[in-house]
Amino acid sequence: MTDPQTPAIFPPVNAPPQFSYQNGLLVTEARADYGRGVLTVGPDSSNPHGQVHGGALATLADTVAGTCACALGGSCVTSGCSMEFLRPAYGPEIVCEATPKKRGRHLCVMAVTLTNAAGKVVCTGTYTFYMLPES
Fold it and tell me: In angstroms, rounded to a whole number, what is the distance separating the alpha carbons of residues 120 and 89?
């Protein structure tokens, strides 16, 4: 049974065959004011230098921020994003936290911060989501 506080998008994000699930991501919290998720770093998460690939970090941020954006109901698609990679990222896991900067009827802007296991910020970013009209 789904908790009434859990957005409808939350369970499918964490289940196969979703892209996020297949790439080692798990959204652990999704509320209207906060989202959190974890990337379990594996061999498929690394770039040729042995660091976490920037695309894996962006996928984590997009997934967590999008799930948080949908926490009030409805669904959304990413309309824009920017990431600032501040230091190399290494496993065993990377944590992403997302908070809304603006919630509107059509657009939701989210701030993300990704940290390593030592609690150091490895990147930050901003994600904008277009809120899809109800069908």
Answer: 9
Q: What is the CATH number of the domain that holds 105?
A: 3.10.129.10
* Three-class secondary structure assignment of the chain: CCCCCCCCCHHHHCCCCCHHHHCCEEEEEEECCEEEEEEECCHHHECCCCCECHHHHHHHHHHHHHHHHCCCCCCEEEEEEEEEECCCCCCCEEEEEEEEEEECCCEEEEEEEEECCCCCEEEEEEEEEEECCCC
Which tens digits make up the pLDDT trace of 83-107? Answer: 999 999 999 999 999 999 999 999 9
Q: How far, rounded to the nearest angstrom, does the alpha carbon of residue 109 sit from its chain's CA centroid?
A: 13
Q: CB neighbours of 20 closer than 8 A, spacing ≥ 6? A: 13, 14, 27, 59, 63
The dihedral region occupied by 46, where left means phi > 0, alpha psi between -120 and 50, and beta the remainder, is beta
The CA radius of gyration of the chain, in Å to the nearest whole number, is 14
Residue 33, Cβ neighbours under 10 Å: how many? Answer: 11
Asked if the structure places residue 5 within a domain, the reply is no
pTM: 0.93
